[in-house]
Amino acid sequence: MITVEHLTKRYGPVLAVDDVSFTAEPGLVTGFLGPNGAGKSTAMRMMTGLTPPTSGAARILGKPFAALANPGRRVGVLLDASAQHAGRTGRETLVLAALLTGVERRRVDEVLDTVGLTPAEAGRRVRTYSLGMRQRLGLATALLGDPDVLILDEPANGLDPAGIRWMRDLLRDFARDGGTVLLSSHLLSEIEQVADRLVVIGRGRVVAEGTKDELLRAAGVVVRSLDDQALAAELRRAGVDVEAGVHGGLSVAADAETVARTAAGAGVLVTELRPADSRGLEELFLELTAADAREEVSA
User: Is residue 201 part of a domain?
Assistant: First the structure.
């Protein structure tokens, strides 16, 4: 589990992360979303002990990252796939990580196979790797210690569609086996497919948190009747927000019972009454972060 409590980071007058609190639970993939400059990467660096917080705390498996005994065996981290020694081979990178964390050498071959790097590719210098190969090597390093938690920042960058699907399946399997996954990505369609929970931040603050189904479920109902105009007028008189539906009927910001009682009181026969269709993640993301997007600043 990852527990973040009132995490704050200030760089002089700039408040990069502003009182962020959330949890990422075992058995679930938690999507960590926000526009460029929202503070995602800074928050993840504080979680993993790379950046000291101004205030607040982050705990992984009940302790600060630095307080974990041999954290590389408990937490797999991939924050920047390009931050690898360009002169080493992929295999050398993993062998050195294995020596530093006390992992058996056989794990090197196991994770290379898991991430799909062939023996020939593992024998090449990292400087010759494509971005997608660097991502696979970074994920292999994260998986090397057979960790309980994965913290991944944009791990799908540079992967082709087959690679993205592979990563999606890997993360689902990891969570299904009881692992905790915190995943940041700008590929909203992938987050929508793989995440169980979502945490959305804008300008360093949490603007939404909950299960994917809770956040994507549109509020209100869709209703059709034999006299939509009369029903809309009656609902508005009752103080309910009503809009004409794109495909006919009415979109009503109220529960089904309120709409049904209002229609009955107005003598209008209802022919359809159902929950509103779910929003897509892109629609939700833009709605929540429209006022907070800072495209000119990197996360």
Answer: yes
Q: Does residue 46 share a domain with residue 123?
A: yes
167 part of a folded domain: yes
Written as tens digits, the pLDDT of the chain (299 aa) is: 999 999 999 999 999 999 999 999 999 999 999 888 889 999 999 999 999 999 999 999 999 999 999 999 999 999 988 888 999 999 999 999 999 999 999 999 999 999 999 999 999 999 999 999 999 999 999 999 999 999 999 998 888 888 889 999 999 999 999 999 999 988 888 888 899 999 999 889 999 899 988 787 766 889 999 999 999 999 999 999 898 876 788 989 888 999 999 999 999 999 999 887 666 788 778 777 776 555 444 44
Q: Is residue 294 part of a domain?
A: no
Alpha-carbon distance of 28 to 209, in angstroms, equals: 14
The verdict on 249 and 108 lying in the same domain is no
CB neighbour burial string for 182-212, b if at least 16 within 10 angstroms, e if fewer: bbbbbbbebbbebbbbbbbbbbbbbbbbeeb
Model pTM?
0.80
288 within some domain: no
Q: 37 lies in which domain range?
A: 2-210
Residue 244 and residue 169 share a domain: no
Q: Please name the residues in contact with 77: beta carbons below 8 A apart, sequence gap of 6 or more.
A: 48, 142, 150, 151, 152
Q: Assess whether 177 and 244 both reside in one domain.
A: no
Strands 250-252, 242-244: pairing kind: antiparallel
